[in-house]
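tool_call: predict_structure(chain=1)
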Amino acid sequence: MRSGSSELLLEQQQQQQQQQPLTEEQQRLRKIRELAPKKKNGNRRFRSWRERVRFYSTSTFAFLSVTAGASLLFLVPLYVDPAISTLSHDFIDRPTLCTTTRREDLVGIFNCSWSSCREGCTSDLYRCVHIYVTFIEENITIPLNMTDYTNYTSEWEQSSEATLLVNIKGCGYPPTVTCKKFNGYYGIEGAIYPCFYSRKNKTVVLTTYNHDDQVALIINFFVVPFVITVISSIALCVMHCDCRCKKDRSHRRNRPQCRRPRIENLR
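tool_result:
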């Protein structure tokens, strides 16, 4: 009996010794978990589909409104303003024939108030080229296969001298405008080529003109960005502002009622 009881006591002591380090380790892990910072995602609130659609649509409309509005600052002076000026001069639709009468290469700010062609519309003019031409005012039809216009122009009466411009502003940017090629081709005295003169101001002549292209420039570079800006701004206003017109009827409620005096009270 004594031997059996002693064995039981030894087994209980061994079990207690085995369980004691486990409990200490568990306490240590529990303290580490308590001291460790909580995850941020635990308190994160998940957005609903409606909130997500509202957020992304707001970002899209804001991006479109800012981008389209800012693009107008660059597109209007570079493309829209020249296109409107070109249409306002009312150039002829069918080309006529021009003949270069003389060319002047000038130097100096005072001598270069204008130029037939210059690369860059904001820089100061120190060197300029003035090309003067005469043209046939009558309505003519130029044959498509004609390459030599010398004999053809001799039959028609020429106009008074006018200025030749690469476009209505007389300036542009490469590669659309290359003044070296322009001056080399049109600046030769006696050169004959198709051109377009203004009906309102016959002293202004262009080498190329297309009415539909000018209208397309105004639509693409002004109307489209302007409409996008307006629609995006209205959408943002509807989504985040109370744009509805409400009539303030509070003054009607507080207005004192004016009663008409009775005849009995006037006596």
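agent: The longest helix spans residues 49-88. Proceeding to next step.
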